[in-house]
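Lab meeting tomorrow. Look over both lines:
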Amino acid sequence: MSLSDPIANMLTSIRNANAARLDTVQVPHSNLKGEMARMLKKEGFISDYTVEGEGGKRVLRMYLKYLPDGSTVFRKIERVSRPGRRSYVPGTAVPRVLGGIGVAILSTSSGIMTDAEARRRKVGGEVLCRVW
C-alpha cells in the first residue's frame, strides 16, 4: 500500500488508538517517524516507543500514556505541513501552541526539534505537527 503522506497516517493512527483507549499503536518505521516519536516521549505525550523488526519490515511501536482518571494525555494532534501545502517558518516566527501549553514539532536543518528548542536556537523550518 502506497501512502502519499506517511506522517499524517502516523498521526491518524495515534489519534484513533487514543480514542479507542489502546495501550499501543504500531506504524511502519522511518527515521522521521522515529524522531517524532522521540519528541513525543521527551515532551511526555507517550510513555515509550520501540523499533521492532529487521530491514524493510521494521515497525515503530508507541506506548500511549493516560492520566490516572483514564483520560488522554493529549487533546489534539494535527498535521500542519501537508504534501499539497507545506508550511515553513523563519527562526524569528516559530509558532507557540496554545501559549506554550502545546508543542509544535519542526523539521529544521539541525534536525527534528520542538518549537521551544527552535526558538532558543533561532532556527526555522517546516512545521510538521502540533500537539496539545
Residues 25 and 62 are 5 Å apart (CA to CA).
